[in-house]
Amino acid sequence: GTAIVLLTRDLRVHDHPALATTCAAFDRVVPLYVLDPALAGRSANRTRFLHQALAELRTELRERGGDLVVRHGDPVAETIRLAGEVGATAVALSADVSRHARRRERLLRAECERHRLHLRLFPGLTVVEPGALRPGGGDHYRVFSPYHRAWAASRWRAELAAPHRIALPDGVRVGRLPAPPPGGSPEAAAGGERLARQRLTDWLPDLDRYGDQHDDMAGDDTSRLSPYLRFGCVSPLAVANRAGDRSGPFVRQLCWRDFYYQVTAAFPEISTTAYRGGATERWRYDDDALAAWTEGRTGMPIVDAGMRQLRTQGWMHNRARLITAGYLTKHLGQDWRAGVAVFFQWLLDGDVANNSGNWQWVAGTGNDTKPYRGFNPVRQAERYDPAGDYVRRWVPELAGAPGKAVHQPWRLPDELRRTLDYPPPLAVPGTDPVWLR
Ligand code: FAD
After folding, report:
1. Strands 69-72 and 90-94
2. Which of 125, 226, 275 has the most ligand 1 atoms within 8 A of CB, as the residue to mutate?
3. ipTM of the complex
């Protein structure tokens, strides 16, 4: 028989449950990607990364005798149409958690039933499937630590090899991959499974240092695997297995990713609605402050450095994400949803579960067990960028400010300050964060 594997954000051949299982069970398999105009234009960075990943997936599939079939339009309608064209009897799909993805799954299920197609959902987007672990009496874990304990102790599925051979049905039109669109961040990483595996191999020797170094902003010692995980160019299970120690600090971060997926599966409104019942939301709406933050000219050097890294690389160091998000919500008093939107436009790894989950954590509306905590950006900067190198790299106007004095340019002697083309801060720590007043 013939089956379709509808690919979404699982753009790899290794450890791909939907692809491996379908290839083992069917004579002919059509790996399909549908470019959905409803999703186009959200982020030039992610669109380009996606196109690179698709081109490489096509190469990998061709090396195995198959191909990547590309269509444009509504994924559900195109899948059903293609099933008719090739005489498929089944459709396989990796299960996803966002509101958009869940709606697509529902529509696909209804259409498959109508056309007597067998739809099967597979794991693969996370290490442990959302919903697989439940606390006594609850539908999902609301707090990270107990989730992490259950997650590390749970049985994980077996990793799967890439299929050896994939046979396409005769005469199927494969369709052209459009050229990646121009625009986006000049230093954005390129997409694809080969680069993802290379990155993992190159980075693993640094794993031992991760625990001590991951917060060193200038050191830049984290894996930078997040965009590849976002598009499934590498399997999170394969990354966790290769890293080994399940309770170690690196694999723990992969658990945070799974944690927000299971939160999002249970609470799909995460990108728009406060997660924590009874969270106080009193935001100010100041377009000028939001624009200054977005463009990296708040006058708070560590914040501006982070935002400029985001725009230049389509990626930001986790510590900088915490500081910039904290400054926007707790010092400038702006609604976290505005920050979510800006990050979502630029981030190569931008996804609903991790972006919104982390923003809500910082804003105090999410899973944090201490929602009233605030980050003091100066103290954070002095601690995690002690020599000021991260700031001087991203805010060259401050190159003349020495050492950690770069973190508080408003305190520099007047003669020096006047030579720096840099604005005074919109909000200074030490005064109460707006949000807490
Ligand atoms: P590493 O430190 O090498 O960690 C390995 C992997 O663990 C990452 O690739 C990522 O998949 C996962 N991970 C690490 N930290 C977190 C975390 N706090 N939450 C969930 N997963 C984590 N991550 C995203 O993937 N997409 C987002 O849209 C996103 N938005 C964020 C927004 C805010 C406000 C904050 C504070 C964090 C956000 N993060 C997001 C989490 C984190 O900052 C990035 O995953 C991390 O910086 C990616 O770099 P890395 O791959 O080098 O991470």
Report:
1. unpaired
2. 226
3. 0.99
